[in-house]
Amino acid sequence: MRILITGATGLVGSEIVRQCHAQNIHVNYLTTSKDKLVSKTEYQGFYWNPDKGEIDLNCFKGVSAIINLAGASIAKRWTPKYKKIILSSRVQSLQTLHKGLLEFGSEYIKSFVSASAIGIYPSSVGNYYTEEEQAVDNSFLGEVVERWEQEADQFQGFPFPVAKIRIGLVMAKDGGALPQMTKPIDNYVGSAFGSGEQWQSWIHIQDLARMFLFAVDNTLSGVFNGVAPNPVSNEKLVKKIADVLKKPLFLPNIPEFVMKLVLGEMSYLLFSSQRVSSKKIEETGFSFKYTNVCPALQEIYGVKSSSKTSEMGLKKEYSS
């Protein structure tokens, strides 16, 4: 089996590639940097330039599934110029893939899975969102995800199933939001943001990569939330990170206006709240390895705990 992956060198893409190779699945990947082209049987790189709609059609040879992860990071200051890059990188990548498939032919493609984000859901402390929700968050991020999914929907004109995975807070040691949350805690200046009541719908990176491959293997169609079954509040998450790192928390919560001064509009990421359900993907037969945040953090930071301690941690999570 051979899968074409866009964004293969990013945080999530790298883990998907690792799991593919562990299962003897070969990977074709697209890159905008010719310096990153590798030519191996199990890992073959191809050049593309979505800004210009350019793509090497050879990337589709031997491919039976496509995973789309392409898109500029949202974890950079949202200047007017960079906001255009965030949106265009997602839309143009999908448009270029679509154009390439029309030219090459799609008869051998059995599955198409595209990344999306839970940022499409309106920020709310009280709501519990499923994939049936129609409302879209009235924010830049909500606008981006809506356009992103609309572009992915264009692939429904092909004969293969199209799945969209709305990714939550990805828990990983070497990238994403977790290291940024961990750093101040590790330096004794960690604290929750705002009220700390905002929900963090998280997922361990291993489970997220497994979910993408599960969607491919089972030719899933439709929207699925890429989150673990038990979201936690921002305050609870900060406390659990501190517990795992064995660091004290003694500073008051950081007010929203302070982070707006520091990060500008991007500070919205720290204060928006989406409590999101994982029930739909579980009903397809997908099983999470990390359903609770304590074991997930312990695995990420290599912390061993006794079964009694783990059991107590789980009880605290379910009661919080």
Automatic annotation (TrEMBL):
Domain annotation DUF1731: ranges: 254-300
Coiled coil: none
A Pfam family the protein falls into: Epimerase
SUPFAM superfamilies reported in the protein's UniProt record: NAD(P)-binding Rossmann-fold domains (SSF51735)
Domain NAD-dependent epimerase/dehydratase positions: 3-126
Gene3D superfamilies: NAD(P)-binding Rossmann-like Domain (3.40.50.720)
Family statement: Belongs to the NAD(P)-dependent epimerase/dehydratase family. SDR39U1 subfamily.
Protein name from the UniProt record: TIGR01777 family oxidoreductase
Lineage: Bacteria, Pseudomonadati, Bacteroidota, Flavobacteriia, Flavobacteriales
